């Protein structure tokens, strides 16, 4: 059961299977890379490792040092301890976050088809491969199918999401058929293959990418129409005067989502005040913060340097 062809059904079984499989997987990597004179090292991550800024920077330092010494880091989710609350969800999502973590210029995603099609090629013989994507559209997302494997967790939809996240960090992404012989070598030699995703002209800094994608929060701050417009168009800080409602519990220094009057989440950021403090000062001018609370950390609830439009 643990090493069978089907995915284990419970978390303890999944964690036990991961513990059994990790040494085997690394042995395969050591043999494959060793035959080409390369050394490898293993890095196991959970979402908590990337959500904590200091641990994020520690992981980046480890990766940079390994690469400096010519050692190839093999990065995977630490499935032996991960539970639903701290899981990345799938390796596509993890790869996009690691692209930012490693400050990589290109994310290569291997799958079982030749790239992104305008329809599911398994059911539609008229489906056409899309060689270059400059913007991921809603139509592309709708055309993306689910996982084609009974042991995988991701489908083309998760790969599109990964390409989008990688693009926000300024990296290109390419989806290739991993079963095609020497596909990466052929790509390196200039052969056209797969689907290439071009990043947008304006990318996020590494820190803002971390805020947008590595942090997880259920807390929400609702703003009025004027504040939503200023944040979207001018990139200003969120001031207490523009806040109308708070949902959820959060502390100072944690992530919150920002919603417009219609309830749409359009930004996220790191709060300078807790939910109880925001509840007291929302709707007031920044000059009134100290009078209301008896102290102040700053004029903004979320400073523009800590705020990201989604």
Concise synopsis of the structure shown:
With 310 residues, the protein is α/β, with parallel strands linked by helices. The protein is 36% helix and 17% strand. Helix 4 runs parallel beside helix 6.
Topology (elements, then pairings):
Blueprint lengths: L10 H24 L4 E7 L1 H5 L1 H16 L2 E7 L13 H11 L4 E6 L20 E2 L4 H6 L12 H13 L3 E6 L5 H6 L6 E3 L8 H9 L5 E4 L1 H10 L8 E5 L7 E5 L5 E6 L4 H7 L7 H5 L13 E3 L1
Parallel strand pairs: 1-2, 3-5, 4-6, 7-9
Antiparallel strand pairs: 5-6, 7-8, 9-10, 10-11
Helix pairs in contact: 4-6
What attributes does this structure have?
310 residues; alpha/beta; Carbamate kinase; Archaeosine Trna-guanine Transglycosylase, Chain: A, domain 4; 5-stranded mixed β-sheet; 4-stranded mixed β-sheet; 11 helices; 11 strands; globular
Structure explained in plain terms:
- The longest helix is centred in the N-terminal third of the chain and has 24 residues, at 11-34.
- The radius of gyration is 22 Å and the shape is globular.
- 36% of the residues lie in helices and 17% in strands.
- The strands form three sheets. The protein has a five-stranded mixed β-sheet, sandwiched between helices. The chain has a four-stranded mixed β-sheet with strand order 3-5-6-4, covered by helices on one side.
- It folds into three domains: 1-87, Carbamate kinase (3-Layer(aba) Sandwich); 104-204, Acetylglutamate kinase-like (Carbamate kinase), CATH 3.40.1160; 217-309, Roll (Archaeosine Trna-guanine Transglycosylase, Chain: A, domain 4).
- The two termini are 42 Å apart.
- The chain contains eleven helices and eleven strands.
- It has 310 residues and is of the alpha/beta class.
- The chain has helices at residues 11-34, 47-51, 53-68, 91-101, 138-143, 156-168, 183-188, 206-214, 225-234, 275-281, 289-293; strands spanning 39-45, 71-77, 106-111, 132-133, 172-177, 195-197, 220-223, 243-247, 255-259, 265-270, 307-309.
């Amino acid at each position: 059961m643990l090493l069978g062809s089907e995915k284990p059904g419970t978390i303890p079984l999944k964690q036990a299977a991961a513990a059994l499989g990790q040494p085997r997987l690394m042995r395969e990597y050591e043999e494959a890379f060793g035959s080409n004179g390369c050394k490898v090292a293993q890095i196991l991550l959970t979402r908590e490792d990337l959500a904590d800024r200091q641990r994020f920077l520690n992981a980046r330092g480890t990766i940079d040092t390994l690469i400096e010494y010519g050692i190839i880091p093999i990065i995977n989710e630490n499935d032996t301890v991960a539970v639903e609350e701290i899981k990345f969800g799938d390796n596509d999502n993890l790869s996009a976050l690691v692209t930012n973590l490693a400050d990589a210029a290109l994310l290569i995603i291997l799958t079982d088809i030749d790239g992104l099609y305008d329809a599911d090629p398994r059911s539609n013989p008229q489906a056409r491969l899309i060689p270059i994507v400059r913007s991921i559209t809603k139509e592309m997302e709708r055309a993306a199918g689910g996982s084609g494997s009974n042991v995988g967790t991701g489908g083309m939809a998760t790969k599109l999401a990964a390409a989008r996240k990688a693009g926000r960090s300024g990296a290109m992404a390419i989806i290739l058929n991993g079963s095609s012989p020497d596909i990466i070598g052929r790509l390196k030699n200039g052969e056209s293959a797969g689907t290439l995703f071009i990043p947008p002209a304006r990318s996020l800094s590494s820190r803002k990418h971390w805020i947008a994608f590595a942090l997880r929060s259920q807390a929400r701050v609702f703003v009025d129409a004027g504040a939503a417009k200023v944040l979207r168009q001018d990139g200003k800080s969120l001031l207490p005067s523009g806040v109308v409602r708070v949902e959820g519990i959060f502390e100072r220094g944690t992530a919150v989502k920002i919603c417009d009057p219609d309830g749409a989440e359009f930004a996220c950021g790191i709060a300078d005040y807790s939910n109880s403090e925001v509840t007291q000062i929302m709707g007031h001018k920044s000059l009134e913060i100290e009078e209301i609370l008896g102290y102040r950390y700053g004029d903004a609830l979320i400073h523009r340097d800590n705020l990201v439009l989604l």
